[in-house]
Protein 1
Amino acid sequence: MTGPAHRLLQAIRPARHLHPERLCATVGRIEEVLDRFLGRKRSRALLESSNSHELARRMPVGPAQARDLASAIAASCDPDELARISDMLERSEISTAEAIDLHIRHKIPVSGLESDIVPVRAEGCWLHAIDGRCYLDLDSDYGAANLGASNAELGLALMNQACELISMKEERVHIPRARFLKTILEMMPGALDRFYWQNSNGEAVDKALKIAKAFTGCRGVIALEGGFHGRTHGAVAVTHNPAYREPFGLAQEDWVHFVGSDDVRAVEALLAEGRARTVIMELVQGEEAGIRPLDRGFAAEVRRSCDAHGAVLIFDEVQTGFGRVAEKPGQWFACQAYRTLPDILVIGESFGGGYPVRKRGQTPTLDT
Ligand SMILES: Cc1ncc(COP(=O)(O)O)c(C=O)c1O
């Protein structure tokens, strides 16, 4: 088999050395694609001629069926149809209905399912869906994909490192970590030059809270109304919306104090009374509040209060980091635009360009 027919065969039965991650196409997916491009009648005829109708719809086709099907389809289609069919099968070997069903049945839901589009690949900010349609991505995966929803440079770097040394425990020096530190140090504001990697934003918030509590010796934390910090146990406890906290018995935590997002006096009072020694906030409240920038004066006043009472100020820049609030080139973080520095900076989302790496940067003084 050669040329376009060979491409089709590889789309149905991907070569293991090229795509170890992929299964063979299911009958259901092949049928879905043929229905779309050839119409129901031609699709039925093709699938029957290779006896594939006897297979369960969710079963991947075997090597012999794959060859038969590829030959039959190639013989009955013009080159344009063949290219489209191959392209669609390369997008997914699992049918739309099966993929959605697997998700609904087996993925524990966190928020509402968006099954209207099943994205399978991207070019920059354009998302290509399993059904061949193309969409302009205005969501950018909660801001994680600000280098584009597929980025060849990022992909190459990930593949190179995965093929060299995929991971290394943190007790050992790791050259990619050293290389990375050299790069990020030049981007960090103020004296923030100590780092700790996490796997998710919520985890990074948790670690920031733990460091602040250990450093101050005080368990009290001040968080803002309208703020969102994630869904891990600690991060959700300091997230304002009670609906996120109540199911976990975190609605009335005595160590968390929510204050209005412009209420400097409440912050000052809690710090002065010694009921809290940590303040956490987003400079632009995102997930829960829409896009609500905090007042610059408020951030500066909270900084002054924290300094006066030996409290730790945490900025959660998961959403705002990496140029999203920049006023001019070189401003990577919102705290630079706000001209107010935190003691701990939580960064994530676009930090990894879609790959899960989150971090906290902290000032050296907190280590002492
Ligand atoms: C400001 C902020 N912090 C923390 C998080 C938690 O992120 P994740 O749930 O991905 O861990 C989010 C998520 O959107 C966020 O917007």
Protein 2
Amino acid sequence: MICISGDGGAQFSLAEMLVAVQESLPILFVIWNSNGYQEIDSSMRAAKVPVVGCDPEPPDFESLAKAFRLSFKRCPASDPKTFARLLQDAAKTKRPALIEIEAPYCP
Ligand SMILES: Cc1ncc(C[n+]2csc(CCOP(=O)(O)OP(=O)(O)O)c2C)c(N)n1
């Protein structure tokens, strides 16, 4: 099972990540880290209102994974081959894992 979220959305689901660790659920958490709330940013632009509060600095997901006793890997969005390998490797372990994709903030 794969759980895909942005860096913003991931922060609303930290308790669920910890449950996956405690219950040894084979869930792969994939975080698309674009360093901001792009969806909200785009909506504000579309509504022609000033864009505010859309670029909060995300947590250090590697440290977060360590604190949660989660396996952690990171790769750039520009390297889908590496991402595919990380995903396959993590799936083989049958353990929960966190993979962070470093993405550009491009509203
Ligand atoms: C509990 C909760 N609080 C606030 C929101 C409002 N909200 C919708 S999308 C979003 C930010 C999304 O950012 P991210 O997950 O990084 O995705 P991106 O749009 O950057 O790809 C927020 C705060 C929400 N959906 N749920």
